Amino acid sequence: LAAIVLKDGKIVYERYNQEKEITADTVLDGMSIAKSGAASVIGHLLCEKKIKSLADTAGMYSDFLKTTPYANITIKNILLMSSGVSKPGDDGEGRFIATALGFGKLAGKGSVKSALNLLEEAYTSQGERWNYHPSDPLALSILAQEITNKPLGQLFYEKIYLDFRKEGRLHWLSDNEGVTVPISSSAMRARDWVRFGQYIMQQMSANTCLGKFFKYGSENAVSTEYSDPNAKKYGFMSWVQDINGSPTLTFRGHAGQLIAMDPTRNIVVYIAFFDKNYNFGNIFSDMDDFLNK
Q: Cα–Cα distance between 107 and 223 in angstroms, integer?
């Protein structure tokens, strides 16, 4: 749908799918890149000292999460998707997402809290296994909102987006109770998506507080147990991939949404892609070769 390459902060390549009437003005869904956006908000709250430590439990900051299996789960393990709360794989995931977003029979009744209440007890102990499931990012959304009395999407706009925006349009999906649903449906124009990647890469290169947060996530990345060599490690709601011989972050979303960062040469690549025949890894596996050309 769209592709942009930034080199030293300047656009050196930019293409849009004219057949599908995609232009620079089109607002594009980042799918699961929304999870990485959610992590950036948690990092900011840590930098503002509204979260004292990532070793603190979610129940220390959220009255609602205190009543769920997340009560004694550390914020760090939630960020790493290693909470242990959800069942392995996609068991029950369809019902969970439908409850959060209000799909099907639940149309008009979407509720993040109701979705989290479906999880009656943790499946395993925290830190024992990684499981890619929407429950952890939803727990982060509740956490951020109860700490600040603002939805996570609004916090992203105020604390992150305003620092890098160029195009000026941002959409986040919320449930019927005004809680941001950061499992998908965060949408921006293509130039802002690539600038988001550049912003995070710059924070890490400059060793700012937010940069240190994402570096810490990268250094403590957990094994995904995937066979794909480009998807073996997961940091704070983001993938850790070797690019140009160095571990770096990639933000990824279903069907091929991608922000890849190469701090060694100050390059950021954004790709918006959607194909019903999408196979996990079919873009990511080529990214190292692409960035080396």
A: 36
